[in-house]
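One example given next:
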Amino acid sequence: MRAIKPDEIKQARDGLGMSQAEFARAFRLSVRSVQKWELQGIPGGPAAVLMWLIIKLPRQAAKALRDF
């Protein structure tokens, strides 16, 4: 699995029209994590898998978690 780049995270968030706080709340993340990832990216692991799904299927991922 490749690293998720900072600009990919910001583009996904911007594409959903969300602030960092809204994005964090929608995807059950901490605001601090979103801030850090937008600066440094995500090297791998479960957070990278979640973010990859959000990047590829942003609206579906947000809807799935709203229904959860």
